[in-house]
C-alpha cells in the first residue's frame, strides 16, 4: 500500500505570501476555486492503493485547517491526518521525526510533496517509473526543465541520460549546473529514513562537540535538498523522473494567479463541471473561469480569462474582471474594473473604481520559463506586481489602485499607485 | 466700430487639437473659440473684425466667410508674412483700423471671460486718453506680467514682468481698446507691445486700466482650457441656466447639444455625467459611463463603463470599454483607445491607436 505526505510549512514560512497569509494558512489559499492543498489531495486520492495522506507542518491547530481536513476526508474518503512539528524541522527533519507514523501499516513507498507547488501530479507515472528501476534505490525525484538563467533559483539535478540516475544535486547554485530542476515532489521507499537517520546522528554528534551547544532545536533540522540529496547523488540511490506537464511554485501572490490559470486549464480534462459557461441570465464568461455557486453576478458583467470567484461574492452591473482571484464575500460594485489582482475576503470595490496589477507571468515564448520569484523592491521602488487587497479592504468609488498591496481592514479614500498601504 | 483679434500662428500649445483644426476654430463649450469673442464684439456694436494671423488657413478663411454672412458684419484677415511680435500686427492693419476716428478693440485670441466690451468703451471715452487695458485679478501674479495702477482713476504707472516679490495681483487680461492716434507709436517691424509701447504710453499718462469683473482664463493650453471650461459653465449657470442639461444622471454644470440639433448626442443608461462636462454634437456615450470635468468634441464615441476625468476627447475619437482616462489626457482627432486601458496624462496625436496603458504622462506620436 502507499501513503502520501504533504509538507505544509508554518506561519514563519511563506512570508512572501503576505498579506494574504495573514488570514488563512497559505496551503489553504484558494487556487482555481479550491484550497491549494486540495489539488494535492485530489491527485493522491486518485492513486490506487493510497491509504493515507499525512500533512506535516508547524501551524498551530486552527479552525480553518480542521474544517478543511474534516471535509476533505469526507469528500475523498481517505484518511487525512495533520501532524504538528514542535518546531520547524526542515524538509527532511519533519518526516524523520514522524517516520514511525509514516511507516505504520507497512507502506511499500510514500509520496512526499511540498504544499506550495502547482502541478499535474503525475503520481502514477512516477510509481511506474519507480517499479521499472532495477536495483535498490530509495527515491524518485520529479524533475522538469527550466531555462538556464532561472534554473539557478531551484534545486538542480544532473542525471545520467541513459539510466536517469541522479549524479549530482545542488540547491540554488550560483553558476549553471543543469536545466533539470527539482519539482518538490518525490516518491521514497522506507529506506530513505536510514539515510536521513545517518545524517541526523552525525548532526547530533557535531552539535554536542560545539561549545556552547546552539540548542537541541538546530540539531533536528534536516533539509532534504542540501543535506540528503547532495549526499545521495551519484550512489545509485536517487533517480529523476522528468515531466513536461505543467509545474510552478506558488511563492508569491502573483504566482497564485498564474497557478490558477494552470489548474483552470486542467479542469477541462479533470473537472469540467468547475468551469463556468455562458448562460441565460448569467455574466459573459470568456476563457477559463471558476464561479462559486453562491456568487451573485449581474448579467452585464464580463469575467475572464483566468478568473476565480469565491463563495458569496457579489458582482454588480457592467463589472470587468480579468486574470484575477476574488475571494469569499467580496463585493464589486457597478462598472468597476479588476485586472491582475487579488481581492481579499469581504473587501468592497466601489463604482467605476479600477484595481489593477502588473502580471509577472513567465515569458510565453519560452516553454521552459518559470514564474519569477521577484523581489518586493527594485531600484529603490516597489516592483510592479499583482495588486493585492487584504481582507476587508474598502476601495471607494472612481479611484485607481495600481500595483499596490493593501493590508487588511483598511479603508482607502483616494487613488494609490506602486505602494504598500499599511 | 472695429476690432483686431491677435490669432497668431500654429497654436502649438493646444496641440494635438490644433494639428487638425486652426486654433480659433477649436470648439470651446461647443462654440469655436473665435466665435465667443466675435459674437460679443458684435453685440457691443463692432461691425468689422480683423483677424491678425501669421499662418494662413484655408479652413479659417472659409469659416470666416460663412460667419460674415451669418452675423452681417465684415471679417478681414491680416496676414503677417514674417513675425511682427505683439504690436507689429496693429501696424500691419493700420489702414483698416484708421478709416475713422472711433476707438478700436484689440484682443488676444486665447482669452475667455464675460466680455465687457460696452463697459470698456464707456470707460475709455470717459478718461479720453489713448489706451485702456483690461486687467484681472489672479492668485499667482508672479507667473505673469503685473500692472501697477492708481485705484481711483485707473491710470497705469508701470508694468512689472513676473515679479519675484509681490507688487500687484492684477495682470494684463489681453483685451485693449485704443484710440487710432495710438497707432503712430508703432512701426511695421517686430515689436513687443508690452515691452516697447505700453511703458512709453504709461509714462505719458496715456494708459488706463479697467478691472474685469467675473471669470477670466487664457485657454491656450489643455490644462487651462479645462479650467476655463469650468468657469464658463458656471457663468452659464448664473446667466442662462436653461442652456445646461439637468436631470437624473447629470451632476453640476453639463452642456449638451440641444435635442433639436442634428446630429444630437446619444447618452446611454446608468451614466453619470458631470460636473463640468461639455458634450459636442453627435457624441455617443454608452451605458454606465462616468465623465467629470471633460470636453468631448463632436462625433466622439465613449464605450460602456469607462471613467473619464479632466480630459479632452478629440473629434470622432473612440474610447473603448472599461477605460480609465485622467489627468489632462488629450486625444487628437480620430484616436482609438482600446478596451480596459489606463490612460494617465497622455497627449495623443491624431489618427493614433492606443493598445497599451499609459500609466505615466507622456506624448504619443
Describe, in plain words, how this protein is organized in 3D.
The complex is a heterodimer of chains A (422) and B (365). Chain A is globular and about 65 Å long. In chain A, strands 5-4-1-6-11-8-12 form a 7-stranded mixed sheet. Chain A has 422 residues and is an alpha/beta fold. In chain A, a hairpin with a 2-residue loop joins strand 2 and strand 3. Chain A is built from 10 helices and 34 strands. Chain B is α/β, with parallel strands linked by helices and 365 residues long. Chain B has 7 helices and 31 strands. A 7-stranded mixed sheet of chain B has the order 5-4-1-6-11-8-12. A 7-stranded parallel sheet of chain B has the order 14-17-20-23-26-29-31, covered by helices on one side. In chain B, strands 15-18-21-24-27-30 form a 6-stranded parallel sheet, with no helix packed on it. In chain B, a hairpin with a 6-residue loop joins strand 9 and strand 10. Chain B is elongated and about 65 Å long. The termini of chain B are far apart. In chain B, 47% of the residues are buried. Chains A and B meet through loops of A and loops of B.
- Our measurement of the CA-to-CA distance between the termini of chain B, rounded to an integer number of angstroms, reads 44 Å
How do the strands of the widest beta sheet of chain B line up side by side? 5-4-1-6-11-8-12
Largest beta sheet of chain B, briefly? 7 strands, mixed
How many extended strands of chain B?
Answer: 31
How much of the polypeptide of chain A forms β-strand, as a percent range? 25-35%
Q: Point out poorly predicted stretches of chain A.
A: none
Mean pLDDT of chain B: 93
The quaternary state of the protein chains shown equals: heterodimer
Shape descriptor of chain B: elongated
Shape of chain A: globular
| Alpha-carbon distance between the two ends of chain A | 50 Å
Overall SS class of chain B:
alpha/beta
What structural class do helix, strand and pairing data of chain A support?
alpha/beta
Rg of chain B is 22 Å
Q: Counting H and I runs of at least 4 residues, what is the number of helices of chain B? A: 7
Rounded to the nearest angstrom, the radius of gyration of chain A is 22 Å
Strand order in the sheet with the most strands of chain A:
5-4-1-6-11-8-12
Largest sheet of chain A: 7 strands, mixed
Amino acid at each position: 500500500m502507499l501513503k502520501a505526505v504533504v509538507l505544509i510549512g508554518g506561519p514563519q514560512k511563506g512570508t512572501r505570501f503576505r498579506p494574504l497569509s495573514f488570514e488563512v494558512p497559505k496551503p489553504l489559499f484558494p487556487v482555481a476555486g479550491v484550497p491549494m492543498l486540495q489539488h494535492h489531495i485530489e491527485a493522491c486520492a486518485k492513486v490506487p492503493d493510497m491509504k493515507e495522506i499525512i500533512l506535516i507542518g508547524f501551524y498551530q491547530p486552527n479552525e480553518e485547517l480542521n474544517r478543511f481536513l474534516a471535509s476533505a476526508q469526507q469528500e475523498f474518503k481517505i484518511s487525512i491526518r495533520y501532524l504538528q512539528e514542535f518546531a520547524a524541522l526542515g524538509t527532511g527533519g519533519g518526516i524523520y521525526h514522524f517516520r514511525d507514523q509514516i511507516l505504520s501499516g507497512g507502506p511499500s513507498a510514500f509520496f512526499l510533496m511540498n504544499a506550495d507547488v502547482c502541478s499535474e501530479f503525475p503520481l502514477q507515472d512516477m510509481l511506474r517509473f519507480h517499479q521499472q528501476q532495477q536495483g535498490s534505490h530509495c527515491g524518485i525525484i520529479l524533475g522538469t526543465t527550466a531555462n538556464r538563467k532561472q534554473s539557478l533559483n531551484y534545486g538542480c539535478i544532473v542525471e545520467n541520460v541513459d539510466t536517469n540516475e541522479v549524479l549530482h544535486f545542488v540547491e540554488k547554485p550560483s553558476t549553471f549546473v543543469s536545466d533539470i530542476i527539482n519539482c518538490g515532489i518525490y516518491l521514497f521507499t522506507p529506506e530513505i529514513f536510514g539515510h536521513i537517520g545517518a545524517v541526523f546522528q552525525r548532526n547530533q554528534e557535531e552539535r554536542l562537540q560545539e561549545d556552547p551547544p546552539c540548542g537541541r532545536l538546530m540539531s533536528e533540522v534536516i533539509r532534504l535538498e542540501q543535506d540528503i540529496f547532495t549526499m545521495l547523488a551519484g550512489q545509485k540511490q536517487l533517480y529523476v523522473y522528468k515531466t513536461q506537464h505543467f509545474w510552478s511554485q506558488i511563492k508569491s501572490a502573483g504566482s497564485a494567479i498564474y497557478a490558477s490559470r494552470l489548474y483552470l486549464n486542467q479542469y477541462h480534462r479533470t473537472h469540467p463541471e468547475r468551469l463556468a459557461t455562458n448562460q441565460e441570465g448569467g455574466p459573459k464568461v470568456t476563457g477559463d473561469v471558476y464561479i462559486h455557486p453562491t456568487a451573485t453576478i449581474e448579467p452585464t458583467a464580463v469575467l475572464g480569462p483566468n478568473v476565480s470567484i469565491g463563495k458569496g461574492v457579489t458582482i454588480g452591473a457592467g463589472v470587468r474582471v480579468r486574470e484575477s482571484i476574488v475571494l469569499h464575500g467580496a463585493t464589486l460594485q457597478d462598472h468597476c474594473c479588476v485586472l491582475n489582482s487579488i481581492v481579499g475576503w469581504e473587501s468592497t470595490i466601489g463604482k467605476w473604481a479600477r484595481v489593477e496589477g502588473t502580471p509577472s507571468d513567465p515569458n510565453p515564448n519560452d516553454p521552459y520559463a518559470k514564474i519569477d520569484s521577484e523581489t518586493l523592491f527594485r531600484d529603490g521602488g516597489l516592483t510592479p506586481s499583482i495588486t493585492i487587497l487584504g481582507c476587508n479592504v474598502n476601495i471607494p468609488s472612481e479611484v485607481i489602485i495600481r500595483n499596490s498591496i493593501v493590508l487588511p481592514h483598511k479603508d482607502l479614500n483616494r487613488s494609490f499607485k506602486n505602494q504598500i498601504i499599511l | 466700430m472695429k476690432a483686431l483679434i491677435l490669432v497668431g500662428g500654429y497654436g502649438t500649445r493646444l496641440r494635438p487639437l490644433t494639428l487638425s483644426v486652426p486654433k480659433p476654430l477649436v470648439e470651446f463649450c461647443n462654440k469655436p473659440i473665435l466665435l465667443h469673442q466675435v459674437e460679443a464684439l458684435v453685440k457691443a456694436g463692432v461691425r468689422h473684425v480683423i483677424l491678425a494671423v501669421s499662418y494662413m488657413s484655408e479652413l479659417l478663411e472659409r469659416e470666416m466667410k460663412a460667419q460674415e454672412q451669418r452675423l452681417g458684419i465684415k471679417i478681414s484677415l491680416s496676414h503677417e508674412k514674417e513675425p511682427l511680435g505683439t504690436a507689429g500686427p496693429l501696424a500691419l492693419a493700420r489702414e483698416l483700423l484708421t478709416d475713422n476716428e472711433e476707438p478700436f478693440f484689440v484682443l488676444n485670441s486665447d482669452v475667455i471671460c464675460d466680455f465687457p466690451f460696452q463697459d470698456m468703451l464707456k470707460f475709455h471715452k470717459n478718461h479720453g486718453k489713448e489706451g485702456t487695458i483690461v486687467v484681472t485679478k489672479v492668485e499667482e501674479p508672479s507667473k505673469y506680467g503685473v500692472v501697477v495702477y492708481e485705484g481711483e482713476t485707473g491710470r497705469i504707472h508701470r508694468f512689472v514682468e513676473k515679479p519675484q516679490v509681490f507688487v500687484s495681483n492684477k495682470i494684463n487680461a489681453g483685451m485693449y481698446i485704443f484710440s487710432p492716434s495710438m497707432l503712430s507709436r508703432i512701426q511695421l517691424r517686430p515689436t513687443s507691445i508690452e515691452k516697447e509701447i505700453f511703458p512709453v504710453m504709461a509714462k505719458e499718462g496715456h494708459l488706463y486700466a479697467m478691472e474685469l469683473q467675473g471669470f477670466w482664463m487664457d485657454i491656450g493650453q489643455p490644462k487651462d482650457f479645462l479650467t476655463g471650461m469650468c468657469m464658463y459653465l458656471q457663468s452659464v449657470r448664473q446667466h442662462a441656466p436653461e442652456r445646461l442639461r439637468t436631470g437624473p444622471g447629470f451632476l453640476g454644470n453639463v452642456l449638451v447639444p440641444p435635442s433639436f440639433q442634428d446630429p444630437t448626442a446619444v447618452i446611454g443608461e446608468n451614466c453619470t455625467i458631470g460636473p463640468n462636462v461639455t458634450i459636442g454634437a453627435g457624441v455617443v456615450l454608452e451605458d454606465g459611463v462616468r465623465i467629470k470635468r471633460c470636453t468631448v468634441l463632436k462625433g466622439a464615441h465613449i464605450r460602456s463603463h469607462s471613467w473619464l476625468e479632466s480630459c479632452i476627447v478629440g473629434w470622432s475619437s473612440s474610447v473603448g470599454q472599461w477605460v480609465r482616462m485622467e489627468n489632462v489626457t488629450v486625444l487628437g482627432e480620430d484616436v482609438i483607445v482600446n478596451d480596459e486601458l489606463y490612460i494617465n496624462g497622455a497627449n495623443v496625436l491624431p489618427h493614433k491607436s492606443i493598445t497599451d496603458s499609459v500609466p505615466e504622462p507622456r506624448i504619443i506620436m
